[in-house]
């Protein structure tokens, strides 16, 4: 019974203090609490006062629990605010790091997309002048088709997978056993890079193109 | 009565202390998770921006080569536009996502690209983004 009254009282205090954390609520608190801290208070004259010492013990542990609860409550409130503030403070830095890690990879991949697309749109006589060998022209066409079948999202997925593989590569320091496994996965490592390499080898077969590539 | 007042003063301070403790702990965790989350967004955005720029670069490469082979491939006006795209691509600060000029350059690049394609009468579109296979939702 004692405990329930205390809880009732406290819960009011807690409510008021969590609603407004400013000094205003403290006056209310102080009032409520001052009753409890006075052993000769009215509440304890309700018949149960003969077990005074037990009650005091109970009261002490109630107080402890209550303090703990309040500690947790304020801690949680603070944690929430701190988490938001911390996230805001670090987001841009993280963004810049991620951006720099991916922008150049996206760029070389996009260049493959751009070159093969623009090639496909050239008038055929011009294309024949640029890439003299028919076999090479066909390779350009094939590359264009496979690149077109990948959306940006698909490419992004491939890129993520590469990144994941890279980071797990770095984490696993044991060389001998793991490298074999990783080599087995290698066929699809850096699919994007493979496209880039295909383009480069095609360009090296087309001297007129290579010139442009070197200039940039 | 004085002593009770003191107790409540300390209780008030305790609340502040607990709040502060929680705040500091949260702030530390926030720095870590905020950086990670930012990095994920950065990876995605960087890749997309890079791909689009690379795409334009590749087109300009091909057009430049074509012009070198056949100077009459396009009109002088379009050649000028291609040159402008070339210049913009070269000055685009790719490793500075916070640079204020980036969105302006990207907008001009898109406009020029569309204008050139229209003049060349080719249906060349930057076809990257739209054909996402799964609504664009990707998680690491």
UniProtKB/TrEMBL annotation, chain A:
InterPro entries: Essential_protein_Yae1_N, Yae1-like
Pfam family, one: Yae1_N
Region (Disordered): 21-41
Localization of this protein: Cytoplasm; Nucleus
The Essential protein Yae1 N-terminal domain, residue ranges: 78-115
Coiled coil regions, renumbered to chain: none
GO cellular component: cytoplasm; nucleus
Keywords: Cytoplasm, Nucleus
Main subcellular localisation: cytoplasm
PANTHER family linked to this entry: PROTEIN YAE1 HOMOLOG
Protein name in UniProt: Uncharacterized protein LOC105169544
Organism: Sesamum indicum (Oriental sesame)
Record lineage: Eukaryota, Viridiplantae, Streptophyta, Embryophyta, Tracheophyta
UniProtKB/TrEMBL annotation, chain B:
Cited InterPro entries: LTO1_adapter (IPR052436)
Protein name: Oral cancer-overexpressed protein 1 homolog
């Amino acid at each position: 019974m004692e405990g329930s009254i205390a809880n009732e009282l406290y819960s009011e205090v807690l409510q008021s203090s969590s609603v407004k954390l400013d000094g205003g609520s403290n006056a209310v608190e102080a009032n409520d609490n001052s009753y409890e801290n006075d052993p000769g208070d009215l509440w304890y004259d309700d018949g149960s006062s003969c077990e005074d010492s037990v009650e005091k013990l109970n009261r002490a542990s109630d107080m402890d629990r209550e303090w703990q609860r309040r500690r947790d409550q304020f801690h949680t409130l603070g944690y929430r605010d701190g988490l938001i503030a911390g996230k805001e403070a670090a987001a841009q830095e993280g963004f810049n790091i991620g951006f720099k890690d991916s922008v150049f990879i996206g760029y070389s991949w996009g260049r493959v997309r751009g070159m093969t697309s623009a090639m496909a749109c050239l008038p055929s006589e011009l294309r024949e002048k640029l890439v003299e060998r028919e076999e090479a022209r066909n390779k350009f066409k094939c590359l264009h088709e496979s690149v077109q079948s990948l959306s940006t999202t698909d490419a992004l997925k491939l890129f993520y997978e590469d990144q994941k593989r890279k980071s797990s590569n770095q984490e696993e320091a044991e060389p001998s056993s793991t490298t074999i496994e990783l080599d087995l996965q290698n066929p699809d490592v850096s699919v994007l890079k493979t496209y880039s390499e295909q383009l480069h080898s095609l360009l090296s077969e087309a001297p007129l193109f290579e010139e442009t590539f070197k200039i940039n | 009565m004085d002593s009770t007042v003191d107790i409540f003063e300390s209780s008030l301070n305790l609340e502040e202390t607990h709040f502060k403790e929680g705040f500091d702990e949260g702030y530390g965790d926030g720095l870590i998770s905020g950086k990670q989350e930012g990095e994920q967004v950065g990876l995605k955005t960087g890749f997309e921006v890079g791909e689009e720029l690379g795409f334009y670069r590749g087109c300009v490469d091909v057009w430049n080569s074509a012009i070198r082979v056949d100077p009459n491939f396009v009109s002088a006006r379009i050649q000028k536009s291609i040159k402008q795209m070339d210049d913009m691509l070269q000055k685009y600060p790719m490793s500075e996502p916070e640079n204020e000029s980036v969105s302006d350059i990207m907008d001009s690049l898109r406009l020029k690209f569309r204008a050139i394609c229209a003049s060349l009468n080719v249906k060349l579109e930057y076809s990257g983004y739209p054909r996402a296979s799964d609504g664009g939702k990707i998680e690491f």
